[in-house]
């Protein structure tokens, strides 16, 4: 039993002895692009997950010259169908309408949460990859499985960035329409009983546009980085060997 324990300890010591801090991979495309991916992932989930906004409109009641403001506050994960309207005035409900019984339309949480969750996972993977590049690049290049695994994950990440960002871009467009130009059309009390509703204000959604931009930027970074990761795999070495082998000409035989 003690012999097995000593063997495990020695194996662990051998693995730890492979740690060699080397910052030179960060100067190469393999490591430098990974830093860019790490930064872009932060901007992706921060600009989406940290968003908070409001939308409002003006309600004019019969016999009153003052317009009352009705608003709704929404935020990540954008379950708009759970966001109710409320009046900003402290007196009785304007126009004798129970505004809190009206909710915004749409549930965009699936697209938003998928996008943010994937961005966080990418952020964590970039940290792990950078630790591997900086501390264990010797093991990385001596192994055949680790570079290939890194290459497969890079391809999958590039594809998922395309899928998640496309879905999130469509959701952002729908959120803008639901909270903006289509808001009044969702309220039955508007234009009924003499109540007149007019457009108000909505929080600028520039940060959501930025999140979409960074999503597609991540897709480009991961797709471009696939080539540099591929060069570290044994597949690239085999292709070079086969290319050089096919281009060689057999020497002439003596007569």
Automatic annotation (TrEMBL):
Keyword Lipid biosynthesis tagged: no
Alphabetized Pfam families for the sequence: MARVEL (PF01284)
Intracellular or extracellular location(s): Membrane
Residues of the MARVEL domain: 25-234
GO annotations of cellular component type: synaptic vesicle membrane
Keyword Transmembrane helix found: yes
Keywords: Glycoprotein, Membrane, Transmembrane, Transmembrane helix
Regions that span the bilayer: 114-136, 148-169, 208-230
Annotated membrane topology: Multi-pass membrane protein
Highest taxon listed in the record's lineage: Eukaryota
Main location group: membrane
Stated family: Belongs to the synaptophysin/synaptobrevin family.
UniProt protein name: MARVEL domain-containing protein
Originating species: Vombatus ursinus (Common wombat)
